[in-house]
């Protein structure tokens, strides 16, 4: 008779929902880290434009929405309940329209490294909006680590730029707010519902969001179709932001937020600007300075500490 040995505490910890959520969140961040370089590749710059920024922002949602519709049919996903359509629409405002459009217009005016630094504020925006909208509390140590990581990002931005805030910075800050709002609204749909109804699986959340927007995104994408030929690399960037950034990346990200807790997992995104910079080196030929690596290591420490100190619990009413 075979003897089964009990799993070690270390193995059990590796398989815990919180740990799985953290790793899924890390995968989502890695996939999203390519969004800025790929958007820049697709849109080009004001001096050497490629695909129109509006087409990249809206067209990527249209293509992803068509793929999502086929996937929902294939898995026979149930239609959202009436109460869920409103939250899907609010999620769409952030992740389908607000964030992609603001970022797409911004990266034509600044390089990917600059955009990555400003959008490094996204984890803080997600945490603050999550705490406000989902009534979560976190430990003082967590907020201290989160603020330290954000301060590092701001210090890096101050070191990089000497011309002050530009129009692109304003657009990127708007993108941060819209992105955090969309993340929170989407995560709420994946969380246990107060009425006892089953939550919507994370991969269905982003898919229904994209399908809901098809009556708007498809006509706008066709209306903004590029009039002149562009490089094949621009279309490659467009395909990435359409299929991965706009759709598949959210499979991992929303699931990670659901399992690991929004306040904890969202802090992994502090690494995203530095990953974007590293990936922009081979894709766009942008230089990587040694101090960038030092900042990245410091932010990694803040993320690790915030993960250890995170404590997400419903606030008392």
Structural account:
This protein is mostly helical. The protein has 14 helices and two strands. The chain has a two-stranded antiparallel ribbon. The radius of gyration is 20 Å and the shape is globular. The chain starts with 8 loop residues before the first helix and ends with a strand.
Give the SSE map:
Blueprint: H1 9-14, H2 17-33, H3 35-43, H4 53-75, H5 82-106, H6 112-118, H7 122-133, E1 136-137, H8 140-160, H9 167-190, H10 202-223, H11 232-260, H12 262-265, H13 272-284, H14 290-309, E2 313-314
Antiparallel strand pairs: 1-2
Helix pairs in contact: 2-11, 2-13, 3-11, 3-13, 4-5, 4-10, 4-11, 5-9, 5-10, 6-13, 7-9, 8-14, 9-11, 10-11
Strand order of the largest sheet: 1-2
Helix fraction, binned, reads: over 70%
Cα radius of gyration in angstroms: 20 Å
Unreliable stretches (pLDDT < 50, length at least 5) are 1-9, 312-317
* Count of distinct strands: 2
- What would you call the shape? globular
Category from helices, strands and their pairing: mainly alpha
Topology as a string of helices (H) and strands (E): HHHHHHHEHHHHHHHE
Strand content: under 5%
Largest sheet: 2 strands, antiparallel
Number of helices: 14
Overall mean confidence score, pLDDT:
83
State the end-to-end CA separation.
55 Å
């Amino acid at each position: 008779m075979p003897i089964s040995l009990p799993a070690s505490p270390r193995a059990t910890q590796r398989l815990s929902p919180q740990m799985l959520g953290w790793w899924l969140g890390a995968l989502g961040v890695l996939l999203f880290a390519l969004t800025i370089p790929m958007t820049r590749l697709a849109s080009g710059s004001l001096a050497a434009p490629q695909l129109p920024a509006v087409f990249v922002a809206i067209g990527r949602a249209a293509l992803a929405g068509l793929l999502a519709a086929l996937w929902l049919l294939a898995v026979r996903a149930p239609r959202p309940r009436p109460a869920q359509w409103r939250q899907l629409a609010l999620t769409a405002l952030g992740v389908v329209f607000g964030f992609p459009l603001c970022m797409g217009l911004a990266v034509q005016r600044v390089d990917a490294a600059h955009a990555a630094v400003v959008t490094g504020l996204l984890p803080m925006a997600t945490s603050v909006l999550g705490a406000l909208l989902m009534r979560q509390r976190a430990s003082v140590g967590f907020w201290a680590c989160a603020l330290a990581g954000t301060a590092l990002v701001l210090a890096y931005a101050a070191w990089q730029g000497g011309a002050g805030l530009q129009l692109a910075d304003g657009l990127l800050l708007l993108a941060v707010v819209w992105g955090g709002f969309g993340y929170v609204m989407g995560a709420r749909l994946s969380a246990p519902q107060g009425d006892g109804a089953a939550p919507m699986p994370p991969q269905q959340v982003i898919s229904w969001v994209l399908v809901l927007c098809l009556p708007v995104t498809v006509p706008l994408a066709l209306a903004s179709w590029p009039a002149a030929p562009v490089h094949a690399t621009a279309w490659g960037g467009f395909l990435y932001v359409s299929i991965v950034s706009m759709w598949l990346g959210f499979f991992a990200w929303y699931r990670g937020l659901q399992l690991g807790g929004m306040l904890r997992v969202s802090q992994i995104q502090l690494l995203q600007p530095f990953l974007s910079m590293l990936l922009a080196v081979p894709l766009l030929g942008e230089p990587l300075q040694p101090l960038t690596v030092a900042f990245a290591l410091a932010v990694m420490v803040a993320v690790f500490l915030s993960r250890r100190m995170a404590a997400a619990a419903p606030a008392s009413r």
